């Protein structure tokens, strides 16, 4: 019995040499048979398992697939392909081996057969009111931003060759945003001239080809369409402001640049001007809820999207201030101390992460007399608040007055148990120091991973969406750790706080392990 051949680089070279020599087709056929036999012997899977792998990959192909097989393979989630005890890596290796055994190019005869089937198949009827583009019809003109991009794109790509197309577009948008008014005016004038030329060319085109003039949709048809559409979602105050500015000012700037300009104006706007947009947004929201109720009556199966509040916390505070509602004071001496510290200049030099610990330590360092002063000040602020609140309620209509009074009563009732126990009567209980969460998503993945496969390979093969789940869980753990650590600091004495300050550098893991390569 002859020895089993090894299909190595020498055999590959020999096969190429044999293919280059004419008249030796039988030898080439033998080599092909040996190569296929070699690859199949290298696979430890049974035929049934290989067919199951092929079937699972076939099931993952969408019905409207129009990508090349290489692009489609890149989009496949291999975690859905695995079966039995076979891992992602094993499935990929077997698939790569199988892929080498099939022809991946098409013969002309196969293409001709497909063409015949396409010609014989019934064609879809053309859509109504859809006109194919005429080759002589002038193209839409560039606006000022597109003119700037067409001139500067090559300059940016030459200067930053490593940038991806999306990053290049972002860079160009930032450059356009930083243009002076004079430079931007120059591009807008050029765009205006191009628009006028386009309008003239389009008029001449429609004179020569009157059949290409678009047909207008009747107002009755549009109204019938709107009747069957759900009510439009309510806009925020800022969105209403941007919409109004866009209607007043016809500009050629990009949408991003225009929104940035409106954002700057919005941030500089005082409360008296903002309250107009806030009230308008609330009126639109009330109208939306009424229209939505009517629409659901006609369409009971419609499930409306859950809309969050249209006002931000800052906008709610602006509305309360403009309506004369007094601002609520802190609920405890410590909260009053925190508020005053956050407004000081010293805290501006400290990062947000360390500011909580810094304020907590400063509060621990205060004497009992100083803490009592904050307590007295807090009581005075609450007495003033109650007086102002009573005066504010008298200015409201009876219905609104009752609603605000009930809401205020509920809030005070929830806060009452916290204020009944005084700090002097509390028993100091030293809490256990919370465990520091992992510093990165990969370390957190290692802490919860229970599989037998190599975790680094599992992490590399994960999609961005799967990694985002671990990122969100880690963020929640870090926020919980900050809250627990703050309570832990409050339970310590001054001596223990000083000792903790001396050993602060050892509380974080500063290992030199590189995670960037693994996580990427």
UniProtKB/TrEMBL annotation:
<dbReference type="Pfam" id="PF09011">
    <property type="entry name" value="HMG_box_2"/>
</dbReference>
<dbReference type="InterPro" id="IPR036910">
    <property type="entry name" value="HMG_box_dom_sf"/>
</dbReference>
<feature type="region of interest" description="Disordered">
    <location>
        <begin position="404"/>
        <end position="426"/>
    </location>
</feature>
<feature type="domain" description="HMG box">
    <location>
        <begin position="231"/>
        <end position="296"/>
    </location>
</feature>
<feature type="coiled-coil region">
    <location>
        <begin position="177"/>
        <end position="204"/>
    </location>
</feature>
<dbReference type="GO" id="GO:0005634">
    <property type="term" value="C:nucleus"/>
</dbReference>
<feature type="DNA-binding region" description="HMG box">
    <location>
        <begin position="231"/>
        <end position="296"/>
    </location>
</feature>
<feature type="domain" description="HMG box">
    <location>
        <begin position="327"/>
        <end position="393"/>
    </location>
</feature>
<keyword id="KW-0238">DNA-binding</keyword>
<dbReference type="Pfam" id="PF00505">
    <property type="entry name" value="HMG_box"/>
</dbReference>
<dbReference type="GO" id="GO:0003677">
    <property type="term" value="F:DNA binding"/>
</dbReference>
<feature type="DNA-binding region" description="HMG box">
    <location>
        <begin position="327"/>
        <end position="393"/>
    </location>
</feature>
<feature type="compositionally biased region" description="Polar residues">
    <location>
        <begin position="23"/>
        <end position="32"/>
    </location>
</feature>
<dbReference type="InterPro" id="IPR009071">
    <property type="entry name" value="HMG_box_dom"/>
</dbReference>
<keyword id="KW-0539">Nucleus</keyword>
<feature type="domain" description="HMG box">
    <location>
        <begin position="138"/>
        <end position="206"/>
    </location>
</feature>
<feature type="region of interest" description="Disordered">
    <location>
        <begin position="500"/>
        <end position="520"/>
    </location>
</feature>
<feature type="DNA-binding region" description="HMG box">
    <location>
        <begin position="138"/>
        <end position="206"/>
    </location>
</feature>
<protein>
    <submittedName>
        <fullName>HMG box domain containing protein</fullName>
    </submittedName>
</protein>
<dbReference type="InterPro" id="IPR051762">
    <property type="entry name" value="UBF1"/>
</dbReference>
<feature type="region of interest" description="Disordered">
    <location>
        <begin position="1"/>
        <end position="35"/>
    </location>
</feature>
<keyword id="KW-0175">Coiled coil</keyword>
């Amino acid at each position: 019995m002859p020895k089993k051949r090894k299909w190595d680089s020498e055999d590959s070279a020999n096969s190429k040499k044999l293919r280059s020599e004419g008249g030796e087709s039988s030898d080439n056929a033998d080599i092909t048979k040996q190569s296929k036999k070699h690859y199949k012997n290298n696979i430890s899977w049974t035929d049934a398992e290989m067919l199951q792998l092929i079937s699972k990959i076939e099931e993952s192909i969408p019905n409207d697939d129009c990508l090349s097989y290489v692009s489609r393979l890149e989009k496949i989630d291999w975690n859905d392909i695995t079966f039995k005890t076979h891992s992602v890596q094993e499935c990929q290796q077997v698939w790569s081996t199988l892929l080498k055994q099939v022809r991946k190019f098409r013969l002309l005869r196969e293409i001709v057969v497909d063409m015949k089937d396409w010609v014989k198949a019934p064609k879809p009827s053309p859509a109504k009111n859809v006109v194919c583009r005429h080759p002589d019809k002038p193209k839409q003109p560039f606006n000022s931003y597109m003119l700037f991009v067409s001139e500067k794109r090559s300059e940016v790509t030459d200067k930053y060759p490593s940038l991806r197309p999306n990053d290049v577009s972002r860079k160009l948008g930032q450059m356009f945003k930083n243009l002076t008014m004079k430079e931007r005016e120059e591009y807008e004038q050029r765009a205006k001239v191009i628009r006028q030329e386009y309008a003239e060319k389009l008029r001449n085109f429609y004179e020569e080809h009157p059949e290409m003039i678009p047909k207008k949709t009747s107002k009755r048809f549009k109204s019938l369409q709107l009747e069957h559409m759900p009510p439009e979602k309510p806009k925020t105050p800022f969105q209403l402001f941007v919409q109004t500015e866009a209607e007043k000012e016809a500009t050629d700037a990009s949408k991003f640049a225009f929104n940035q300009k409106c954002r700057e104006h919005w941030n500089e706007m005082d409360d008296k001007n903002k309250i107009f947009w806030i009230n308008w947004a609330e009126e639109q929201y009330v109208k939306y809820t009424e229209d939505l109720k009517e629409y659901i009556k006609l369409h009971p199966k419609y499930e409306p999207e859950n809309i969050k509040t249209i006002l931000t916390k800052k906008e709610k505070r602006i509305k309360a201030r403009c309506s004369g509602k007094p601002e609520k004071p802190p609920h405890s001496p410590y909260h009053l101390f925190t508020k005053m510290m956050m407004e000081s200049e010293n805290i501006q030099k400290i990062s947000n992460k360390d500011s909580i610990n810094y304020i907590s330590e400063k509060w621990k360092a205060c004497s009992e007399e100083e803490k009592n002063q904050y307590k007295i000040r807090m009581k005075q602020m609450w007495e003033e608040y109650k007086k102002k609140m009573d005066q504010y309620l008298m200015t409201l209509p009876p219905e609104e007055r009752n609603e605000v009074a009930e809401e205020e009563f509920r809030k005070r009732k929830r806060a009452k148990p916290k204020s009944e126990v005084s700090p002097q009567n509390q028993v100091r209980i030293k809490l256990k120091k919370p465990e520091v969460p992992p510093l990165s998503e990969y370390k957190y993945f290692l802490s919860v991973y229970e599989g037998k496969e190599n975790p680094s390979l599992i992490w590399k093969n994960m999609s961005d969406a799967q990694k985002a789940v671990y990122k969100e869980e880690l963020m929640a753990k870090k926020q919980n750790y900050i809250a627990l650590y703050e309570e832990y600091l409050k339970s310590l004495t001054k001596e223990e706080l000083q000792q903790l300050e001396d050993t602060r550098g050892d509380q974080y893991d500063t290992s030199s392990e590189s995670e960037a390569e693994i996580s990427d």
